[in-house]
Amino acid sequence: MTDLLNQLQNHRSIRKFTTEPVNQETVEDLIRAGQAAATSSFIQACTVIQISQGERRAQLAELANNQAYVNDAPVFLVFCADMHRHQIACNLHNAPMKSGFTEQFLTASVDCALFAQNVVVAAESQGLGICYIGALRNNPVAVSELLALPELTYPLFGLCIGHPDQNPEVKPRLPLSVVLKQESYSDAGDEQALADYDTTVRQYYQTRTGNPRSQSWTEQISGMLQKEARPHMLPFLQSRGFIKE
Ligand SMILES: Cc1cc2nc3c(=O)[nH]c(=O)nc-3n(C[C@H](O)[C@H](O)[C@H](O)COP(=O)(O)O)c2cc1C
């Protein structure tokens, strides 16, 4: 296995960092790696906002469910899907911009996620650890105000980066047969494969070093999917100029 495959297959989120700083040249190298990701129709619809440790970071941590590592990580980035600069591009050519299409929301969000995952892979290649922070979307209006986000942008997620101060086990993923199908979709065999996977995941949760518990994957997912999933997101996104058509 190549070093890169090995690195990718051994990813785990890091939620405790040493106080060792990450130098700014490294951060900028990571961002350049992010920018190099493929981008739908060359739209380059991602803006990253780096938040230093201080009052604003503390407020973000509070808005993101008080997750301590948001405050403690040496580097914290907010990834924003951004079609604002496209408005500027259209204005430069006196071309009225048609916005608000769901397709544009999708392409901007996908662009931003690809950018971020390149940053993650690059960071891990440097021995750094990361944790995505989707909890910023618990309070997307307040986050947008805090970061002075203009219309046609929204905060997709945050990213903690730093030197790991923990060594968690790798979380086992779904069996390949469940995620890789040949020629067309078939869920034949998935129920049994999920039952087997449940045993693996329960074992992982029971034996992991930090926060052990007894839970299977289907238990976790079925519990989660009985709750509403941030229903404020549709009106929020519409208020930012997305998903109107
Ligand atoms: C978009 C996104 C948002 C996430 N948000 C959070 C978060 O707010 N807090 C957190 O502790 N982990 C968060 N995670 C990390 C996931 O919980 C984690 O990736 C998943 O449990 C798999 O574990 P692993 O990354 O260690 O393999 C997020 C991951 C993604 C991709």
Describe the 3D structure.
The structure is a single chain. This protein is of the alpha+beta class. The chain has two domains: 3-168, 3-Layer(aba) Sandwich (NADH Oxidase); 176-221, no CATH class. Helix content is 45%, strand content 11%. The protein contains eleven helices and four strands; from the N terminus they run H-H-E-H-H-E-H-H-E-H-E-H-H-H-H. The protein has helices at 3-9, 24-35, 55-63, 68-72, 84-92, 102-125, 140-146, 176-179, 190-207, 217-224, 233-239, and strands at residues 46-50, 75-82, 129-133, 153-162. A four-stranded antiparallel β-sheet has the order 1-2-4-3, with helices on both faces. The protein is globular. The mean pLDDT is 98. Flavin mononucleotide (FMN) binds next to strand 3. The site of flavin mononucleotide (FMN) has 12 residues, from strand 3.
Query: Can you give the helix content as a percent range?
Result: 40-55%
So what's the CATH class of the largest domain? Alpha Beta
- Domain module count: 2
Whole-Å distance between the termini?
A: 46 Å
Instruction: List segments where confidence is low: pLDDT < 50 over at least 5 consecutive residues.
Output: none
CATH architecture of the largest domain: 3-Layer(aba) Sandwich
**How would a crystallographer describe the biggest sheet?**
4 strands, antiparallel
What is the topology?
Elements: H1 3-9, H2 24-35, E1 46-50, H3 55-63, H4 68-72, E2 75-82, H5 84-92, H6 102-125, E3 129-133, H7 140-146, E4 153-162, H8 176-179, H9 190-207, H10 217-224, H11 233-239
Antiparallel strand pairs: 1-2, 2-4, 3-4
Helix pairs in contact: 2-6
The protein binds flavin mononucleotide.
